[in-house]
């Protein structure tokens, strides 16, 4: 009788799983930026710049995604602030918040599945 588990590649894989705690914290900081006026998002993007390049490719793509999310969000919220003077800014601000939430949820999901986020280079979701 042979030991089947000894032949299973999943059992033989002794490589440590990359720690996804920091990227999860960064996504949470981006989301908290909605109520802190972006201050926590600023902390998150600094963390993403510091930690990028220190993990597997799929994890580095999350850091790139988080950095892009910060800079694109900055543009979207700045434009919304300017458009507030003609009253459409409130609507564009709401759309920017929805955009941010969707990107962060997609990022969380990708981390849980240990894969890079979809459409890292897009300005949409």
From TrEMBL:
Transmembrane segments: 25-51, 71-102
Keywords: Membrane, Transmembrane, Transmembrane helix
Membrane keyword on record: yes
Protein name, UniProt field: DUF4870 domain-containing protein
Organism: Halomonas halmophila
